[in-house]
Amino acid sequence: LATTGFVVHLVDERRWCLGVAAYELGTGYVRQAPLARVARVPLARLVDRVRQSAHLFVLHGREVIYVI
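User: That's the sequence. What structure does it adopt?
Assistant: Structure tokens below.
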């Protein structure tokens, strides 16, 4: 976890704390919530029209973030 930035070791305090990667992961929900609210109804209508499943993803760098 430390090498990926999820935790940071505070040697002087003999403790571990959350790192930047954990913060980014936690705030990801806040960033996607408005998009999910806006897209929910149109995506449901699309599913009803084409009778297939549908998902909303957002490209974030080289990764894909599942929203709905």
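Helices lie at 20-50.
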